[in-house]
């Protein structure tokens, strides 16, 4: 992906010292995550889209396993012609990535032959294979939900003896923990099985359009596949149903801006049959639709709606008000679909011959067939499954806390997953011998030290990139997902003289609006958003969809025209500018801003 370094350079990995007060941070992560001397010769960029915060020790698994699966699918199963997989390193608790490009023409051609056969099989049988995928992923979710955290009693249940099970319950501690980790790994392999092929189809269409229509903008290509009906939006639809029910049952007065979920739930409990009916509907909607993380599924502390009702209850007052006013809350899918046809036909008419038009039709048709998966898979994988995964790990933490190894259940996330195995072995031995666990004096000081290190790392400002800058940054996937281009790098290097009142990025979703900015430093602050504000953040998650009904526009530091923030904004018909690289540092809460989603410009008005 990144070759031929020029004279310009970001700091080299070897030049970055440990953040003040965080010396020894490396011990939180496996050895293979550390930068090596030869890595100074390569270009890396900070993956703030997926990892916008410091990675706690256990959460390191959310980079290790996904990159294992992504690379396996692109490099070893489907043989993508010009790229292998992604390598990652951790520096001061932040994830940096680079991709290994295939540049030898002969090898590209060899891999292309394999790709056409292997990927071609999936493209030709997409709908049928997708049904199989759906069944596999739902089976994995059922498996992770069925995993039990064993209860260790004074004596094992008599049935263990009379049933001749052949092993005591302490055996299940590590077996069931291993089961969680193994299922998480398998989920990510399934996750990227279709995902990379979906991106691959879009990249081919994108490159065709860029060559055939040199003046076309990235957003215009993206709008040709807009108007999708995907699973990721269903949690938001469930909220709208709950809002409608609140109006029908004359409970609308309970849903007001800034209302605390616990107080609203208590008030509903006092409203007789109507309140009981609404609460029953809430419980029914929760499984599975509230198993959606407020983040993007990469941090244990980005809780799901089912764990923390802040996000859904921040959206409900607006929906209730709109329904009372007779508003139509359906997403503008029909309008987007009509618009995508108009745009596609306008560009198709510019093509010269029938052969080019046929190629255009084939590529666009494939994109529209495969692209809904790119959003739908997120609900099943990064949200429903991952919510359940973290809940199970938290339960193992509860067991370790009950046995005195850890001070509290949440401390399990300050151990690497291999260290959790050691802690569980300690419990297995103590229960079996009648002795006492020795882990308290070993693990609790380590946990305390790591909490202190994480706090120190939080104050460190990571460079947006590391290493020598390549002559050209032209990888379309990197551009579309992360928004990293030559222009982005130039901005990072400070080479562009920009008006201090102007922030530039990608035109992600059309429209121009003005509003007051609300800058969020983390997803945990999402409940602060108020009606009509402009959301400014490092990166958004698809699960923020309900909040999109309240805001006037969205602006993010990270992301390209096919990032999830951009896709969601287009589906909600809301202006958005992404990949600015600096919006959260240039804009302050309370600033009045103009967001131009047609040109990718945010102007600070005052």
UniProtKB/TrEMBL annotation:
Domain of life of the source: Bacteria
Membrane spanning residue stretches: none
SUPFAM superfamilies from the UniProt entry: Phosphohistidine domain
What residues does the PEP-utilising enzyme mobile domain cover? 530-600
Which Gene3D superfamilies has this protein been placed in? Phosphohistidine domain (3.50.30.10)
Kindly provide the name given to this protein in its UniProt entry: PEP-utilizing enzyme
Which species is listed as the source? Pseudonocardia aurantiaca
């Amino acid at each position: 992906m990144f070759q031929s370094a020029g004279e310009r350079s970001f700091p080299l990995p070897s030049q970055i010292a440990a953040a003040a007060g965080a010396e020894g941070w490396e011990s939180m992560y496996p050895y293979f995550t550390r930068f090596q001397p030869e890595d100074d010769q390569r270009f890396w960029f900070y993956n703030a889209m997926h990892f916008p915060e410091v990675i706690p020790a256990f959460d390191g698994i959310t980079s290790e396993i996904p990159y294992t699966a992504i690379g396996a699918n692109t490099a070893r199963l489907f043989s993508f012609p010009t790229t292998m997989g992604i390598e990652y390193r951790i520096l001061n608790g932040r994830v940096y990535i680079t991709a290994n490009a295939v540049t030898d023409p002969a090898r590209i051609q060899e891999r292309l032959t394999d790709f056409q056969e292997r990927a071609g099989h999936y493209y030709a049988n997409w709908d049928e294979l997708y049904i199989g995928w759906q069944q596999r992923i739902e089976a994995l979710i059922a498996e992770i939900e069925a995993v039990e955290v064993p209860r260790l009693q004074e004596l094992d249940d008599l049935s263990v003896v009379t049933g001749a099970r052949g092993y005591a319950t302490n055996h299940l501690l590590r077996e069931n923990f291993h089961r969680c980790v193994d299922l998480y790994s398998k989920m990510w392999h399934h996750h990227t099985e279709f995902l990379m092929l979906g991106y691959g189809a879009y990249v081919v269409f994108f490159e065709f359009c860029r060559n055939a229509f040199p003046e076309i903008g990235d957003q215009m290509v993206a709008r040709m596949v807009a108007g999708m009906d995907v699973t990721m939006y269903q949690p938001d639809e469930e909220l709208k149903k709950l809002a409608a029910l609140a109006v029908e049952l004359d409970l609308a007065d309970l849903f007001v801006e800034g209302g605390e979920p616990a107080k609203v739930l208590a008030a509903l409990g006092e409203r007789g049959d109507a309140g009981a009916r609404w609460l029953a509907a809430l419980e029914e909607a929760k499984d599975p639709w509230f198993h959606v993380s407020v983040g993007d599924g990469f941090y244990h502390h980005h809780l799901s709606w089912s764990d923390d009702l802040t996000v859904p209850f921040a959206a409900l007052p607006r929906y209730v008000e709109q329904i009372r006013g007779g508003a139509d809350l359906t997403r503008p899918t029909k309008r987007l679909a009509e618009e995508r046809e108009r745009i596609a036909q306008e560009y198709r008419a510019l093509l010269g011959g029938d052969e080019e038009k046929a190629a255009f039709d084939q590529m666009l048709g494939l994109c529209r067939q495969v692209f809904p998966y790119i959003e739908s898979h997120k609900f099943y994988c990064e949200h429903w499954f991952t919510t359940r995964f973290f809940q199970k790990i938290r339960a193992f933490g509860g067991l370790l806390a009950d046995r005195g190894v850890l001070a509290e259940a949440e401390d399990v996330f300050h151990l690497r997953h291999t260290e959790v195995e050691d802690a569980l072995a300690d419990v297995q031995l103590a229960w079996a011998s009648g002795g006492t666990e020795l882990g308290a004096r070993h693990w609790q000081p380590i946990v305390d030290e790591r909490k202190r290190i994480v706090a120190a790392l939080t104050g460190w400002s990571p460079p947006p990139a590391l290493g020598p800058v390549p002559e050209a940054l032209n990888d379309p996937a990197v551009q579309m997902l992360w928004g990293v281009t030559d222009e982005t790098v130039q901005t990072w290097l400070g080479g562009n003289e920009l008006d201090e009142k102007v922030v530039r990025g990608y035109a992600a979703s059309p429209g121009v609006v003005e509003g007051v900015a609300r800058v969020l430093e983390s997803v945990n602050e999402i409940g602060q958003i108020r009606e009509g504000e402009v959301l400014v953040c490092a990166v958004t998650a698809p699960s923020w969809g309900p909040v999109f009904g309240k805001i006037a526009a969205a602006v993010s530091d990270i992301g390209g025209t096919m990032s999830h923030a951009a896709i969601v904004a287009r589906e909600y018909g809301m202006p958005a500018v992404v990949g600015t690289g600096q919006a959260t540092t240039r804009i302050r809460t309370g600033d009045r801003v103009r967001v131009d989603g047609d040109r990718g410009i945010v102007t600070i008005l005052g």
